[in-house]
Structures are given as C-alpha cells and as structure tokens.
Design a protein that fits this description.
Strand content: 5-15%
Distance between the termini: 40 Å
Number of helices: 9
Strand order of the largest sheet: 4-3-5-6
Helix content: 40-55%
CATH class of the largest domain: Alpha Beta
Radius of gyration: 17 Å
Structural class: alpha/beta
C-alpha cells in the first residue's frame, strides 16, 4: 500500500507542483517520510496550512467558551503545537492543554487491539480533563480522538471540524 501511495504522490503532486495537505497529523509524518527522497513534493499538515493560509482571512462567526485540546505525538515531532494552539485560540475563549497530556497510546490500531495500553496511557490526562466540564474537546488525529473519547467519556473531534463549525455564517 505504501508503494502505491508513494507512486501516486510522485505522479500527482510533483507533476502539479502543489502541496499535499494531510488532515491527520500522524499521516503527515508518515507521508513526509515516504517521499522525503523525492524532490519537489511538499507534504503539509492541515494545521500548518490552515494556520498559515486560511486563518488570516477566515472570519470566525461564533467562538466556543472552552476547549480541551490534546496535542499529538506526531504534532510535537513536526513542530505543530503552535499552529494547533493558534487555531484553537481563534475559535475558543479558553484553550486548555492538560498539564498531564501525553501520548494516548492508541498508535494507529493498537488501542483497538490492546485497549489497556490506551487506558494506562491516558489515565492522568483523563483525570485532569474530567475534573471539569469543557464545551468542546479536540485533537488532530482520529485515533487519538477515539482514545481520549474512551478515556474521558467526552466526544473528541478534529480541531478543524470545530473551526469549520465556528466559521459558518
């Protein structure tokens, strides 16, 4: 599968000269690794793209009062936390990144196959999050959102979904 993806990226992105925007932070990391030897292919995480290109011209119509935000391991590795926080701050009056946040342990499908990994990895963060109520809960990677939803009993969604909702006329 990775060789097919690599070939498609090389054929499409390098020929068109356009960036490939990934809306799943761990996939951004993986795609960048997949094509790093190819010249002319730019892999951009959606958080960075939105922060740089869209947010400056987007009108947020309705802010939410509070947002619990879970950074991702890949986001840290790619240096995306500032972009993530900028987007979150544009849509929420209060953005809380738990002091006890850590890798959720979901690791693609590991959390489904071994839920005890995610339960253990999220215990401290879940305790902190469930100590109060937030209007919304977000991350930037679906497996993390599933893991944190399971751990906290709250519904975590992609941060860009909340941005879209906040910018509706």
């Amino acid at each position: 599968m990775s060789s097919q993806t690599r070939k498609a990226l090389i054929k499409g992105a390098s020929a068109q000269g356009i960036p490939v925007v990934s809306d799943s932070t761990s996939c951004t990391d993986g795609l960048a690794d997949l094509v790093k030897k190819e010249g002319g292919i730019e892999i951009v995480d959606a958080l960075a793209f939105i922060s740089e290109k869209v947010l400056p011209v987007l009108k947020v119509q309705k802010k939410i009062s509070s947002l619990a935000l879970h950074p991702t391991c890949s986001g840290v590795q790619l240096g995306l936390n500032a972009a993530m926080h900028e987007i979150a701050s544009a849509i929420s009056d209060e953005v809380v990144i738990p002091e006890n946040w850590a890798c959720c342990g979901y690791a693609g499908d590991r959390g489904m196959l071994h839920p005890e990994l995610t339960q253990s990895a999220t215990r401290a963060e879940a305790r902190e999050i469930t100590a109060r109520t937030f209007e919304k809960y977000a991350s930037s990677n679906r497996p993390c959102e599933i893991g944190l939803s399971d751990a906290t009993g709250q519904i975590y969604v992609h941060l860009l979904q909340l941005l879209e909702e906040a910018s509706r006329p």
